[in-house]
Amino acid sequence: MKRVMVNVLLSGVLFFGVAFFGRKAIGRDADHGLLRMAWRTSGEKVRICKELSAEEKAKIPIHMRRDAGCVSRVLPYRLHASVDGKVIEDRAIVPAGIHGDRPLYVQAELARAPGPVAVHIDFAPDLSLLHEEVGMRDPAWEASAARAPRFTLDKTVDIKAGRIALVALDKAGKELVVYGAGPSSTPSAD
Amino acid sequence: MYSPRLSHQPKPLPAGSRAFQKIFAPLDNLLTRLYGSRWNPVHYSGALAVFFFLALLVSGLYLFLFYSIGTPYKSVVGIQEQVWAGRWVRALHRYASDAVIVTTVLHVFKMTAAGKSWGPRALAWITGVFLVGLILLTGWTGMIMVWDVQGYLVAYEGARLLDLLPIFSQPISRSFIQQDTMPTSFFFMNLFLHVALPLGVAFGMWLHTSRVARPRLLPERDAMLTAAFVALAVSIAWPAPLLPGADLLAIPGRLATDMLFAFWVPVSREIPPLAHAGLWAGGFALLVSAPWWLRPRDKQIMPSQVDIERCTGCTQCYEDCPYDAIQMVKRTVPSKLSEFVAQVDEDVCVSCGICSASCAPMGVGPPLYDGRSQLRQAEAFVAEHAPRHDQVVVLGCTNEHAKFQAQDGVLFYPTGCSGAVHTSIIELLLKRGVGGVYMLTCPPSSCTYREGPKWLELRVHHDREAELHARVDKTRVKIGGFAAAERAAAVADIRAFVSEIAKRATVTPDMSPLAEPECEPEAKS
Question: What sign for the dihedral angle of Cα B131, B132, B136, B142?
Answer without folding.
Answer: positive
